[in-house]
What we know:
The structure holds two protein chains of two kinds. Chain A is mostly helical.
Amino acid sequence: MDEVIMDEIMKDRIGQLVDYIMKNCLWQFHSRTWDRERQNEGILTKTMQLLCEEPVECETAFDRCYWVDAVCMADAFKSRYPWLKGMDKAEIRLIMQGLKERMDYLTIKGSLNLELTDQHY
Amino acid sequence: MPYHEFECSKCIPERKKHAVTKGLCEDLTSALPLGYLNTIPGSISERGCAYCGAKHVIGTPMKDVIHISHGPVGCTYDTWQTKRYISDNDNFQLKYTYATDMKEKNVVFGAEKMLKQNIIEAFRAFPKIKRMTIYQTCASALIGDDINAVAAEVMDEMPDVDIFVCNSPGFKGPSQSGGHHTINIAWIKDKVGQVEPEITSDYVINYVGEYNIQGDQEVMMDYFKRMGIQVLSTFTGNGSYDDLRAMHRAHLNVLECARSAEYICNELRVKYGIPRLDIDGFGFEPLSASLKKIGLFFGIGDRAQKIIDEETAKWKPELDWYKERLKGKKVCLWPGGSKLWHWAHVIHAEMGVEVVSVYTKFGHQGDMEKGIARCEGGALAIDDPNELEGVEAMLKLKPDVIFTGKRPGEVAKKIRVPYLNAHAYHNGPWKGYEGWVRFARDIYNAIYSPIHKLALVDISKDDIRTDKGFVTQRMLSDTNLSEEALSSADLRQYTGKYDSLADLRKKVYPSFERQPVEAEV
Protein backbone atom coordinates (compact mmCIF):
# COMPACT_ATOMS: atom_id res chain seq x y z
CA MET A 1 0.00 0.00 0.00
CA ASP A 2 2.82 2.38 0.98
CA GLU A 3 4.57 1.59 -2.27
CA VAL A 4 1.46 2.45 -4.23
CA ILE A 5 1.19 5.79 -2.44
CA MET A 6 4.89 6.46 -2.99
CA ASP A 7 4.49 5.68 -6.69
CA GLU A 8 1.60 8.09 -6.93
CA ILE A 9 3.55 10.82 -5.16
CA MET A 10 6.52 10.20 -7.45
CA LYS A 11 4.29 10.28 -10.53
CA ASP A 12 2.67 13.50 -9.40
CA ARG A 13 6.01 15.17 -8.75
CA ILE A 14 7.42 14.09 -12.10
CA GLY A 15 4.25 15.51 -13.64
CA GLN A 16 4.95 18.87 -12.00
CA LEU A 17 8.49 18.94 -13.37
CA VAL A 18 7.30 17.93 -16.84
CA ASP A 19 4.69 20.69 -16.74
CA TYR A 20 7.36 23.25 -15.87
CA ILE A 21 9.58 22.13 -18.75
CA MET A 22 6.73 22.04 -21.26
CA LYS A 23 5.47 25.51 -20.36
CA ASN A 24 8.78 27.29 -19.94
CA CYS A 25 11.52 25.57 -21.96
CA LEU A 26 12.29 25.12 -25.64
CA TRP A 27 15.33 22.83 -25.56
CA GLN A 28 13.25 19.64 -25.60
CA PHE A 29 11.72 20.35 -29.00
CA HIS A 30 14.61 20.22 -31.42
CA SER A 31 13.46 18.94 -34.77
CA ARG A 32 14.95 15.46 -35.09
CA THR A 33 15.09 12.32 -32.92
CA TRP A 34 18.87 12.38 -32.59
CA ASP A 35 18.77 16.04 -31.57
CA ARG A 36 16.12 15.43 -28.94
CA GLU A 37 18.01 12.45 -27.51
CA ARG A 38 21.14 14.56 -27.23
CA GLN A 39 19.28 17.50 -25.68
CA ASN A 40 17.35 15.41 -23.14
CA GLU A 41 20.47 13.52 -22.10
CA GLY A 42 22.74 16.57 -21.93
CA ILE A 43 20.43 18.95 -20.10
CA LEU A 44 18.63 16.58 -17.74
CA THR A 45 21.88 14.88 -16.68
CA LYS A 46 23.44 18.23 -15.86
CA THR A 47 20.31 19.36 -14.01
CA MET A 48 20.44 16.22 -11.90
CA GLN A 49 24.15 16.83 -11.14
CA LEU A 50 23.41 20.42 -10.11
CA LEU A 51 20.54 19.38 -7.85
CA CYS A 52 22.75 16.71 -6.27
CA GLU A 53 25.62 19.23 -5.93
CA GLU A 54 27.88 17.02 -8.03
CA PRO A 55 30.58 18.35 -10.40
CA VAL A 56 29.27 19.25 -13.86
CA GLU A 57 31.37 18.90 -16.99
CA CYS A 58 31.64 22.19 -18.91
CA GLU A 59 34.69 21.62 -21.08
CA THR A 60 33.22 22.30 -24.51
CA ALA A 61 30.96 25.04 -25.84
CA PHE A 62 28.25 22.42 -26.34
CA ASP A 63 28.54 21.37 -22.68
CA ARG A 64 28.26 25.00 -21.59
CA CYS A 65 25.15 25.37 -23.68
CA TYR A 66 23.52 22.41 -21.95
CA TRP A 67 24.77 23.68 -18.61
CA VAL A 68 23.10 27.12 -18.89
CA ASP A 69 19.72 25.53 -19.52
CA ALA A 70 20.38 23.14 -16.62
CA VAL A 71 21.32 25.98 -14.22
CA CYS A 72 18.13 27.90 -14.97
CA MET A 73 16.02 24.79 -14.67
CA ALA A 74 17.61 23.63 -11.41
CA ASP A 75 17.05 27.11 -9.93
CA ALA A 76 13.41 27.09 -11.05
CA PHE A 77 12.83 23.58 -9.67
CA LYS A 78 14.31 24.55 -6.30
CA SER A 79 12.26 27.74 -6.01
CA ARG A 80 8.96 26.28 -7.21
CA TYR A 81 8.92 22.82 -5.68
CA PRO A 82 9.68 22.90 -1.94
CA TRP A 83 9.42 19.11 -1.74
CA LEU A 84 12.82 18.91 -3.50
CA LYS A 85 14.50 20.29 -0.37
CA GLY A 86 13.34 17.35 1.70
CA MET A 87 14.89 14.81 -0.68
CA ASP A 88 18.27 13.17 -0.33
CA LYS A 89 20.57 12.71 -3.33
CA ALA A 90 19.42 9.17 -4.04
CA GLU A 91 15.81 10.32 -4.18
CA ILE A 92 16.70 13.25 -6.43
CA ARG A 93 18.54 10.90 -8.79
CA LEU A 94 15.51 8.62 -8.86
CA ILE A 95 13.05 11.39 -9.62
CA MET A 96 15.33 12.86 -12.29
CA GLN A 97 15.66 9.42 -13.86
CA GLY A 98 11.86 9.20 -13.93
CA LEU A 99 11.71 12.70 -15.44
CA LYS A 100 14.18 11.73 -18.17
CA GLU A 101 12.15 8.63 -19.04
CA ARG A 102 8.94 10.64 -19.19
CA MET A 103 10.50 13.37 -21.34
CA ASP A 104 11.98 10.75 -23.69
CA TYR A 105 8.51 9.24 -24.02
CA LEU A 106 6.67 12.52 -24.60
CA THR A 107 9.16 14.03 -27.02
CA ILE A 108 10.68 11.01 -28.75
CA LYS A 109 9.32 7.49 -28.24
CA GLY A 110 5.65 8.39 -27.97
CA SER A 111 5.80 11.51 -30.13
CA LEU A 112 3.36 11.78 -33.01
CA ASN A 113 5.65 14.20 -34.85
CA LEU A 114 6.30 12.57 -38.22
CA GLU A 115 9.31 14.78 -38.97
CA LEU A 116 11.42 13.38 -36.16
CA THR A 117 12.72 10.54 -38.29
CA ASP A 118 13.53 12.68 -41.34
CA GLN A 119 17.18 12.00 -42.14
CA HIS A 120 18.05 15.63 -42.97
CA TYR A 121 17.44 19.02 -41.43
CA MET B 1 -7.08 11.28 -30.75
CA PRO B 2 -9.38 14.20 -29.82
CA TYR B 3 -9.80 15.43 -33.40
CA HIS B 4 -12.13 18.35 -33.98
CA GLU B 5 -14.29 18.24 -37.09
CA PHE B 6 -15.54 21.58 -38.37
CA GLU B 7 -19.10 21.66 -39.70
CA CYS B 8 -17.92 23.70 -42.67
CA SER B 9 -15.20 21.17 -43.54
CA LYS B 10 -17.29 17.99 -43.42
CA CYS B 11 -17.11 17.99 -47.20
CA ILE B 12 -13.29 17.86 -46.92
CA PRO B 13 -12.87 14.85 -44.61
CA GLU B 14 -9.04 15.02 -44.76
CA ARG B 15 -9.24 18.24 -42.75
CA LYS B 16 -10.38 16.36 -39.65
CA LYS B 17 -6.83 15.31 -38.77
CA HIS B 18 -5.64 18.92 -38.84
CA ALA B 19 -7.48 20.07 -35.71
CA VAL B 20 -7.48 18.72 -32.15
CA THR B 21 -8.84 19.84 -28.81
CA LYS B 22 -6.35 19.61 -25.98
CA GLY B 23 -8.36 17.88 -23.28
CA LEU B 24 -7.41 18.30 -19.64
CA CYS B 25 -5.85 14.84 -19.61
CA GLU B 26 -4.27 15.01 -23.05
CA ASP B 27 -0.57 15.19 -23.72
CA LEU B 28 1.50 15.34 -26.90
CA THR B 29 1.30 11.61 -27.44
CA SER B 30 -2.48 11.79 -27.76
CA ALA B 31 -3.20 15.28 -29.12
CA LEU B 32 -1.26 16.50 -32.14
CA PRO B 33 -2.68 17.51 -35.53
CA LEU B 34 -0.98 16.76 -38.82
CA GLY B 35 1.17 19.58 -40.15
CA TYR B 36 3.41 20.90 -42.93
CA LEU B 37 1.52 19.00 -45.61
CA ASN B 38 0.18 20.20 -48.94
CA THR B 39 -3.02 22.16 -48.49
CA ILE B 40 -6.02 19.98 -49.34
CA PRO B 41 -7.80 21.01 -52.56
CA GLY B 42 -11.03 22.81 -51.69
CA SER B 43 -9.59 24.36 -48.56
CA ILE B 44 -8.89 28.08 -49.04
CA SER B 45 -5.63 28.30 -47.17
CA GLU B 46 -4.18 31.40 -45.55
CA ARG B 47 -0.65 30.30 -46.41
CA GLY B 48 1.96 32.05 -48.48
CA CYS B 49 4.24 30.43 -51.05
CA ALA B 50 7.84 29.25 -50.85
CA TYR B 51 9.07 32.28 -52.84
CA CYS B 52 7.42 34.66 -50.40
CA GLY B 53 8.76 32.70 -47.44
CA ALA B 54 12.30 32.97 -48.76
CA LYS B 55 12.20 36.55 -49.98
CA HIS B 56 9.80 38.49 -47.83
CA VAL B 57 10.33 36.73 -44.52
CA ILE B 58 14.05 36.05 -44.52
CA GLY B 59 15.88 37.68 -47.43
CA THR B 60 14.39 41.14 -47.55
CA PRO B 61 14.96 42.21 -43.93
CA MET B 62 18.68 42.47 -44.86
CA LYS B 63 19.09 46.22 -44.95
CA ASP B 64 21.95 47.15 -47.28
CA VAL B 65 20.86 45.11 -50.25
CA ILE B 66 18.92 45.41 -53.51
CA HIS B 67 16.41 42.55 -53.39
CA ILE B 68 15.20 41.66 -56.87
CA SER B 69 12.67 39.09 -58.06
CA HIS B 70 13.19 37.37 -61.36
CA GLY B 71 9.61 36.95 -62.48
CA PRO B 72 6.33 38.74 -63.19
CA VAL B 73 5.90 41.99 -61.33
CA GLY B 74 3.01 40.68 -59.23
CA CYS B 75 5.22 38.23 -57.32
CA THR B 76 7.20 41.00 -55.74
CA TYR B 77 4.58 43.75 -55.69
CA ASP B 78 1.84 41.72 -54.06
CA THR B 79 4.11 40.47 -51.31
CA TRP B 80 5.91 43.77 -50.75
CA GLN B 81 5.69 45.44 -47.33
CA THR B 82 3.63 42.63 -45.85
CA LYS B 83 5.79 42.86 -42.75
CA ARG B 84 7.19 45.92 -41.01
CA TYR B 85 10.83 44.87 -40.71
CA ILE B 86 12.39 48.26 -40.31
CA SER B 87 16.08 49.13 -40.31
CA ASP B 88 18.42 51.80 -39.02
CA ASN B 89 19.50 52.88 -42.53
CA ASP B 90 16.28 54.71 -43.36
CA ASN B 91 14.48 51.49 -44.28
CA PHE B 92 16.21 51.12 -47.64
CA GLN B 93 15.07 47.52 -47.98
CA LEU B 94 11.43 48.43 -47.38
CA LYS B 95 11.22 51.52 -49.52
CA TYR B 96 11.98 49.86 -52.84
CA THR B 97 11.07 46.59 -54.47
CA TYR B 98 12.49 45.33 -57.75
CA ALA B 99 11.32 42.86 -60.38
CA THR B 100 12.48 41.89 -63.84
CA ASP B 101 8.84 42.05 -64.98
CA MET B 102 8.78 38.84 -67.01
CA LYS B 103 6.20 38.67 -69.80
CA GLU B 104 4.93 35.99 -72.21
CA LYS B 105 7.73 36.66 -74.70
CA ASN B 106 10.30 35.99 -71.97
CA VAL B 107 8.62 32.70 -71.15
CA VAL B 108 8.99 31.73 -74.83
CA PHE B 109 12.45 33.13 -75.53
CA GLY B 110 14.05 33.13 -72.07
CA ALA B 111 14.77 36.02 -69.73
CA GLU B 112 18.45 35.71 -68.80
CA LYS B 113 19.52 38.64 -70.98
CA MET B 114 16.81 40.81 -69.47
CA LEU B 115 17.82 39.71 -65.98
CA LYS B 116 21.40 40.83 -66.57
CA GLN B 117 20.20 44.23 -67.80
CA ASN B 118 17.99 44.59 -64.74
CA ILE B 119 20.82 43.76 -62.35
CA ILE B 120 23.13 46.33 -63.90
CA GLU B 121 20.38 48.96 -64.04
CA ALA B 122 19.54 48.44 -60.38
CA PHE B 123 23.17 48.80 -59.28
CA ARG B 124 23.48 51.96 -61.40
CA ALA B 125 20.30 53.40 -59.91
CA PHE B 126 21.66 52.90 -56.38
CA PRO B 127 25.42 53.31 -56.76
CA LYS B 128 26.11 53.18 -53.00
CA ILE B 129 24.56 49.73 -52.70
CA LYS B 130 26.97 46.95 -53.68
CA ARG B 131 25.07 43.88 -52.57
CA MET B 132 22.11 42.13 -54.18
CA THR B 133 19.88 39.13 -53.63
CA ILE B 134 17.96 37.59 -56.55
CA TYR B 135 14.90 35.41 -56.06
CA GLN B 136 13.68 32.84 -58.52
CA THR B 137 9.89 32.71 -59.02
CA CYS B 138 7.61 30.02 -60.47
CA ALA B 139 7.86 31.53 -63.96
CA SER B 140 11.66 31.78 -64.12
CA ALA B 141 12.05 28.33 -62.54
CA LEU B 142 9.74 26.67 -65.06
CA ILE B 143 11.57 28.09 -68.08
CA GLY B 144 14.90 27.12 -66.53
CA ASP B 145 16.73 30.44 -66.51
CA ASP B 146 20.18 29.96 -64.96
CA ILE B 147 20.19 32.82 -62.48
CA ASN B 148 23.40 31.70 -60.81
CA ALA B 149 25.26 31.88 -64.13
CA VAL B 150 23.96 35.38 -64.85
CA ALA B 151 24.91 36.54 -61.34
CA ALA B 152 28.42 35.09 -61.74
CA GLU B 153 28.81 36.88 -65.07
CA VAL B 154 27.83 40.23 -63.52
CA MET B 155 30.17 39.70 -60.57
CA ASP B 156 33.02 39.06 -63.05
CA GLU B 157 32.23 42.30 -64.84
CA MET B 158 31.60 44.33 -61.66
CA PRO B 159 34.17 43.12 -59.10
CA ASP B 160 32.94 45.47 -56.36
CA VAL B 161 29.50 43.84 -56.14
CA ASP B 162 28.36 40.59 -54.57
CA ILE B 163 25.16 38.74 -55.44
CA PHE B 164 23.27 35.98 -53.65
CA VAL B 165 20.84 33.80 -55.59
CA CYS B 166 17.92 32.04 -53.93
CA ASN B 167 16.23 29.36 -56.03
CA SER B 168 12.97 28.98 -54.13
CA PRO B 169 10.07 29.25 -56.58
CA GLY B 170 6.56 29.47 -55.15
CA PHE B 171 5.75 25.84 -55.79
CA LYS B 172 8.79 24.53 -53.87
CA GLY B 173 7.12 23.28 -50.73
CA PRO B 174 3.68 23.25 -49.16
CA SER B 175 3.97 26.77 -47.74
CA GLN B 176 6.28 29.69 -47.06
CA SER B 177 8.09 27.40 -44.64
CA GLY B 178 9.64 25.56 -47.59
CA GLY B 179 11.18 28.88 -48.63
CA HIS B 180 12.60 29.51 -45.17
CA HIS B 181 14.37 26.18 -45.38
CA THR B 182 15.75 26.75 -48.88
CA ILE B 183 17.20 30.20 -48.19
CA ASN B 184 18.76 29.06 -44.89
CA ILE B 185 20.65 26.29 -46.61
CA ALA B 186 21.55 28.41 -49.65
CA TRP B 187 22.99 31.18 -47.48
CA ILE B 188 25.28 28.93 -45.43
CA LYS B 189 26.32 27.01 -48.54
CA ASP B 190 27.02 30.02 -50.74
CA LYS B 191 27.93 32.93 -48.48
CA VAL B 192 28.96 32.05 -44.92
CA GLY B 193 32.74 31.98 -44.49
CA GLN B 194 33.49 34.58 -47.16
CA VAL B 195 34.16 37.56 -44.86
CA GLU B 196 36.51 37.69 -41.88
CA PRO B 197 35.03 40.03 -39.25
CA GLU B 198 36.79 42.28 -36.78
CA ILE B 199 36.25 40.75 -33.36
CA THR B 200 35.81 43.45 -30.71
CA SER B 201 34.59 41.46 -27.70
CA ASP B 202 35.34 38.23 -25.85
CA TYR B 203 31.67 37.36 -26.24
CA VAL B 204 30.48 36.99 -29.80
CA ILE B 205 27.07 35.81 -30.98
CA ASN B 206 24.91 35.54 -34.05
CA TYR B 207 21.35 36.60 -33.30
CA VAL B 208 19.33 34.26 -35.52
CA GLY B 209 15.65 34.15 -36.50
CA GLU B 210 15.00 37.78 -35.58
CA TYR B 211 13.43 40.08 -38.18
CA ASN B 212 13.29 43.47 -36.46
CA ILE B 213 9.54 43.79 -36.68
CA GLN B 214 8.90 47.41 -35.68
CA GLY B 215 12.29 47.43 -33.98
CA ASP B 216 12.39 44.15 -32.00
CA GLN B 217 16.01 43.52 -32.99
CA GLU B 218 17.12 46.97 -31.89
CA VAL B 219 15.54 46.43 -28.47
CA MET B 220 17.41 43.16 -28.02
CA MET B 221 20.65 44.69 -29.33
CA ASP B 222 20.39 47.22 -26.53
CA TYR B 223 20.52 44.41 -23.96
CA PHE B 224 23.38 42.63 -25.72
CA LYS B 225 25.42 45.84 -25.95
CA ARG B 226 24.81 46.59 -22.29
CA MET B 227 26.25 43.14 -21.56
CA GLY B 228 29.32 43.81 -23.70
CA ILE B 229 28.37 41.16 -26.25
CA GLN B 230 29.34 41.61 -29.89
CA VAL B 231 26.52 40.68 -32.22
CA LEU B 232 28.39 39.58 -35.30
CA SER B 233 25.27 39.29 -37.40
CA THR B 234 21.52 39.26 -37.16
CA PHE B 235 19.81 36.72 -39.36
CA THR B 236 18.26 38.78 -40.82
CA GLY B 237 16.30 41.76 -39.40
CA ASN B 238 18.30 45.00 -39.61
CA GLY B 239 21.15 42.68 -40.64
CA SER B 240 23.96 43.54 -42.98
CA TYR B 241 24.82 41.31 -45.96
CA ASP B 242 28.55 41.22 -45.24
CA ASP B 243 28.05 40.65 -41.50
CA LEU B 244 25.99 37.60 -42.41
CA ARG B 245 28.87 36.27 -44.52
CA ALA B 246 30.92 36.22 -41.30
CA MET B 247 28.54 34.10 -39.21
CA HIS B 248 31.15 31.33 -38.89
CA ARG B 249 33.19 33.34 -36.34
CA ALA B 250 30.55 33.53 -33.59
CA HIS B 251 30.91 31.65 -30.30
CA LEU B 252 27.18 31.08 -29.89
CA ASN B 253 24.06 31.15 -32.06
CA VAL B 254 21.19 32.69 -30.14
CA LEU B 255 18.06 31.45 -31.89
CA GLU B 256 14.74 33.27 -31.59
CA CYS B 257 12.43 31.96 -34.35
CA ALA B 258 13.35 28.29 -34.63
CA ARG B 259 10.65 27.77 -37.25
CA SER B 260 12.28 29.98 -39.84
CA ALA B 261 15.95 29.73 -38.93
CA GLU B 262 16.81 26.55 -37.03
CA TYR B 263 18.21 25.12 -40.25
CA ILE B 264 21.13 27.54 -40.45
CA CYS B 265 21.83 27.11 -36.73
CA ASN B 266 21.91 23.34 -37.11
CA GLU B 267 24.25 23.62 -40.09
CA LEU B 268 26.51 26.13 -38.30
CA ARG B 269 26.72 23.62 -35.48
CA VAL B 270 27.70 20.78 -37.80
CA LYS B 271 30.06 22.76 -40.04
CA TYR B 272 31.66 25.23 -37.62
CA GLY B 273 30.97 23.75 -34.17
CA ILE B 274 28.90 26.70 -32.94
CA PRO B 275 26.28 25.68 -30.36
CA ARG B 276 22.63 26.74 -30.62
CA LEU B 277 20.73 28.29 -27.73
CA ASP B 278 16.97 28.71 -28.23
CA ILE B 279 15.56 31.78 -26.49
CA ASP B 280 12.29 33.68 -25.95
CA GLY B 281 12.45 37.46 -26.36
CA PHE B 282 8.78 37.94 -25.42
CA GLY B 283 7.54 38.23 -21.84
CA PHE B 284 9.32 39.25 -18.66
CA GLU B 285 10.14 35.79 -17.27
CA PRO B 286 11.13 34.10 -20.54
CA LEU B 287 13.24 37.08 -21.61
CA SER B 288 14.92 37.25 -18.20
CA ALA B 289 15.74 33.55 -18.37
CA SER B 290 17.09 34.03 -21.90
CA LEU B 291 19.39 36.90 -20.95
CA LYS B 292 20.52 34.95 -17.91
CA LYS B 293 21.42 31.92 -20.04
CA ILE B 294 23.43 33.99 -22.50
CA GLY B 295 25.19 35.70 -19.60
CA LEU B 296 25.98 32.37 -17.92
CA PHE B 297 27.33 30.94 -21.17
CA PHE B 298 29.96 33.68 -21.30
CA GLY B 299 30.53 33.93 -17.53
CA ILE B 300 28.91 37.39 -17.34
CA GLY B 301 25.71 36.43 -15.57
CA ASP B 302 26.01 39.50 -13.31
CA ARG B 303 25.68 41.84 -16.30
CA ALA B 304 22.51 40.05 -17.38
CA GLN B 305 21.09 40.15 -13.86
CA LYS B 306 21.64 43.92 -13.67
CA ILE B 307 19.58 44.43 -16.82
CA ILE B 308 16.86 42.06 -15.61
CA ASP B 309 16.57 43.87 -12.26
CA GLU B 310 16.53 47.36 -13.78
CA GLU B 311 14.05 46.60 -16.54
CA THR B 312 11.71 44.56 -14.36
CA ALA B 313 11.57 47.26 -11.69
CA LYS B 314 10.81 49.89 -14.32
CA TRP B 315 8.17 48.10 -16.39
CA LYS B 316 6.51 45.43 -14.23
CA PRO B 317 4.07 47.85 -12.49
CA GLU B 318 2.87 48.90 -15.94
CA LEU B 319 2.44 45.35 -17.17
CA ASP B 320 0.46 44.54 -14.04
CA TRP B 321 -1.89 47.53 -14.61
CA TYR B 322 -2.94 45.90 -17.87
CA LYS B 323 -2.97 42.40 -16.38
CA GLU B 324 -5.60 43.47 -13.85
CA ARG B 325 -7.81 44.58 -16.74
CA LEU B 326 -7.12 41.67 -19.10
CA LYS B 327 -7.65 38.80 -16.65
CA GLY B 328 -9.95 36.13 -18.03
CA LYS B 329 -10.27 37.66 -21.50
CA LYS B 330 -10.46 34.98 -24.19
CA VAL B 331 -7.82 34.99 -26.92
CA CYS B 332 -7.46 33.09 -30.16
CA LEU B 333 -3.73 32.91 -30.79
CA TRP B 334 -3.61 32.47 -34.54
CA PRO B 335 -0.22 33.51 -35.89
CA GLY B 336 1.86 32.13 -38.76
CA GLY B 337 4.41 29.99 -36.98
CA SER B 338 6.64 30.73 -34.02
CA LYS B 339 4.47 33.16 -32.03
CA LEU B 340 2.15 30.23 -31.46
CA TRP B 341 4.64 28.92 -28.93
CA HIS B 342 6.47 32.14 -28.01
CA TRP B 343 3.21 33.56 -26.61
CA ALA B 344 0.95 30.60 -25.70
CA HIS B 345 1.97 30.32 -22.06
CA VAL B 346 3.38 33.75 -21.27
CA ILE B 347 0.32 35.80 -22.24
CA HIS B 348 -1.67 33.60 -19.86
CA ALA B 349 0.92 33.80 -17.07
CA GLU B 350 1.83 37.48 -17.35
CA MET B 351 -1.30 39.12 -18.78
CA GLY B 352 -3.95 36.80 -17.36
CA VAL B 353 -5.70 36.08 -20.66
CA GLU B 354 -7.12 32.65 -21.52
CA VAL B 355 -5.88 31.12 -24.78
CA VAL B 356 -8.94 29.28 -26.13
CA SER B 357 -7.42 28.37 -29.48
CA VAL B 358 -4.02 28.17 -31.16
CA TYR B 359 -3.37 27.79 -34.84
CA THR B 360 -0.52 27.92 -37.26
CA LYS B 361 -0.69 28.70 -40.94
CA PHE B 362 2.62 27.14 -41.95
CA GLY B 363 4.12 25.63 -38.82
CA HIS B 364 5.36 22.07 -38.66
CA GLN B 365 4.24 19.46 -36.15
CA GLY B 366 7.17 20.55 -33.97
CA ASP B 367 5.62 24.00 -33.65
CA MET B 368 2.28 22.49 -32.69
CA GLU B 369 4.07 20.33 -30.10
CA LYS B 370 5.47 23.48 -28.50
CA GLY B 371 2.19 25.39 -28.76
CA ILE B 372 0.00 22.61 -27.40
CA ALA B 373 2.50 21.90 -24.61
CA ARG B 374 2.40 25.55 -23.57
CA CYS B 375 -1.33 26.32 -23.76
CA GLU B 376 -3.87 25.36 -21.12
CA GLY B 377 -6.31 22.46 -21.38
CA GLY B 378 -9.41 22.94 -23.51
CA ALA B 379 -7.70 24.90 -26.28
CA LEU B 380 -8.55 24.13 -29.90
CA ALA B 381 -5.41 23.63 -32.02
CA ILE B 382 -5.72 24.00 -35.79
CA ASP B 383 -3.17 23.41 -38.55
CA ASP B 384 -3.39 25.35 -41.85
CA PRO B 385 -6.94 26.61 -41.23
CA ASN B 386 -9.21 27.87 -43.96
CA GLU B 387 -11.28 31.03 -43.68
CA LEU B 388 -14.59 29.27 -42.98
CA GLU B 389 -13.02 27.26 -40.16
CA GLY B 390 -11.72 30.48 -38.65
CA VAL B 391 -15.19 32.03 -38.72
CA GLU B 392 -16.78 28.87 -37.27
CA ALA B 393 -14.21 28.76 -34.47
CA MET B 394 -14.74 32.44 -33.61
CA LEU B 395 -18.53 32.05 -33.52
CA LYS B 396 -18.19 29.02 -31.25
CA LEU B 397 -15.40 30.19 -28.94
CA LYS B 398 -16.46 33.86 -28.78
CA PRO B 399 -12.97 35.29 -28.21
CA ASP B 400 -12.53 38.83 -26.91
CA VAL B 401 -9.63 39.37 -29.30
CA ILE B 402 -7.61 37.43 -31.86
CA PHE B 403 -3.92 37.76 -32.74
CA THR B 404 -3.41 36.92 -36.39
CA GLY B 405 -2.47 38.24 -39.83
CA LYS B 406 -4.21 41.01 -41.67
CA ARG B 407 -6.24 38.77 -43.99
CA PRO B 408 -7.97 36.68 -41.29
CA GLY B 409 -7.91 39.81 -39.13
CA GLU B 410 -10.18 41.64 -41.53
CA VAL B 411 -12.54 38.65 -41.52
CA ALA B 412 -12.64 38.80 -37.73
CA LYS B 413 -13.54 42.48 -37.76
CA LYS B 414 -16.55 41.72 -39.93
CA ILE B 415 -17.99 39.52 -37.19
CA ARG B 416 -17.10 42.15 -34.57
CA VAL B 417 -14.06 40.42 -33.11
CA PRO B 418 -11.13 42.80 -32.49
CA TYR B 419 -7.81 41.68 -33.91
CA LEU B 420 -4.16 42.51 -33.42
CA ASN B 421 -1.60 41.96 -36.16
CA ALA B 422 0.57 39.13 -34.88
CA HIS B 423 2.99 39.34 -37.82
CA ALA B 424 3.62 43.08 -38.16
CA TYR B 425 2.25 44.34 -34.82
CA HIS B 426 0.12 47.37 -34.09
CA ASN B 427 2.23 49.67 -31.89
CA GLY B 428 5.42 47.66 -31.56
CA PRO B 429 8.13 46.79 -30.86
CA TRP B 430 6.61 44.08 -28.68
CA LYS B 431 9.92 42.43 -27.72
CA GLY B 432 11.79 43.39 -24.60
CA TYR B 433 10.37 44.53 -21.28
CA GLU B 434 8.95 47.81 -22.53
CA GLY B 435 7.77 46.09 -25.70
CA TRP B 436 5.78 43.57 -23.70
CA VAL B 437 3.95 46.42 -21.98
CA ARG B 438 3.26 47.96 -25.40
CA PHE B 439 1.74 44.64 -26.48
CA ALA B 440 -0.44 44.56 -23.34
CA ARG B 441 -1.52 48.14 -24.11
CA ASP B 442 -2.45 47.17 -27.66
CA ILE B 443 -4.51 44.23 -26.37
CA TYR B 444 -6.22 46.51 -23.86
CA ASN B 445 -6.99 49.08 -26.55
CA ALA B 446 -8.32 46.40 -28.90
CA ILE B 447 -10.64 44.80 -26.35
CA TYR B 448 -11.96 47.92 -24.66
CA SER B 449 -12.27 50.25 -27.61
CA PRO B 450 -15.76 51.85 -27.56
CA ILE B 451 -15.85 51.44 -31.33
CA HIS B 452 -17.11 47.87 -31.03
CA LYS B 453 -20.41 49.04 -29.55
CA LEU B 454 -20.66 52.11 -31.75
CA ALA B 455 -20.12 49.96 -34.82
CA LEU B 456 -23.36 48.12 -34.08
CA VAL B 457 -25.39 51.30 -34.49
CA ASP B 458 -26.97 51.64 -37.94
CA ILE B 459 -26.86 55.35 -38.65
CA SER B 460 -29.30 54.94 -41.55
CA LYS B 461 -32.16 53.95 -39.26
CA ASP B 462 -31.23 53.80 -35.57
CA ASP B 463 -32.01 56.72 -33.30
CA ILE B 464 -28.67 58.35 -32.48
CA ARG B 465 -28.75 59.82 -28.99
CA THR B 466 -26.11 62.43 -28.29
CA ASP B 467 -26.90 62.85 -24.60
CA LYS B 468 -26.12 59.30 -23.52
CA GLY B 469 -23.99 56.33 -24.43
CA PHE B 470 -20.66 58.14 -24.03
CA VAL B 471 -18.00 55.66 -22.91
CA THR B 472 -14.24 55.49 -22.65
CA GLN B 473 -11.94 52.51 -22.39
CA ARG B 474 -11.46 53.10 -18.67
CA MET B 475 -15.22 53.22 -18.11
CA LEU B 476 -15.46 49.81 -19.76
CA SER B 477 -12.35 48.19 -18.29
CA ASP B 478 -12.67 49.38 -14.70
CA THR B 479 -16.32 48.49 -14.12
CA ASN B 480 -15.69 45.21 -12.35
CA LEU B 481 -12.18 45.86 -11.09
CA SER B 482 -11.35 45.20 -7.43
CA GLU B 483 -10.98 48.16 -5.09
CA GLU B 484 -7.40 47.07 -4.44
CA ALA B 485 -6.50 47.29 -8.11
CA LEU B 486 -8.37 50.55 -8.59
CA SER B 487 -6.67 52.30 -5.71
CA SER B 488 -3.21 50.78 -6.17
CA ALA B 489 -0.45 53.36 -5.97
CA ASP B 490 2.02 51.00 -7.67
CA LEU B 491 0.19 50.07 -10.84
CA ARG B 492 0.27 52.50 -13.73
CA GLN B 493 -0.49 52.70 -17.45
CA TYR B 494 2.28 52.70 -20.06
CA THR B 495 4.54 55.71 -19.66
CA GLY B 496 6.88 55.15 -22.60
CA LYS B 497 7.18 57.30 -25.69
CA TYR B 498 5.29 56.93 -28.96
CA ASP B 499 8.62 56.07 -30.63
CA SER B 500 10.53 53.87 -28.24
CA LEU B 501 13.47 53.39 -30.62
CA ALA B 502 14.68 56.96 -31.18
CA ASP B 503 16.60 57.12 -27.89
CA LEU B 504 18.07 53.64 -28.39
CA ARG B 505 19.59 54.69 -31.70
CA LYS B 506 21.39 57.59 -30.02
CA LYS B 507 22.55 55.64 -26.99
CA VAL B 508 26.25 55.40 -26.09
CA TYR B 509 27.35 52.12 -24.52
CA PRO B 510 30.08 51.40 -21.98
CA SER B 511 33.18 49.62 -23.21
CA PHE B 512 34.22 46.48 -21.39
CA GLU B 513 37.83 45.45 -20.95
CA ARG B 514 38.81 42.35 -22.88
CA GLN B 515 40.69 39.39 -21.46
CA PRO B 516 44.38 39.40 -22.44
CA VAL B 517 45.12 36.93 -25.24
CA GLU B 518 47.65 34.27 -24.29
CA ALA B 519 50.68 34.23 -26.55
CA GLU B 520 50.93 31.19 -28.78
CA VAL B 521 53.89 28.94 -28.01
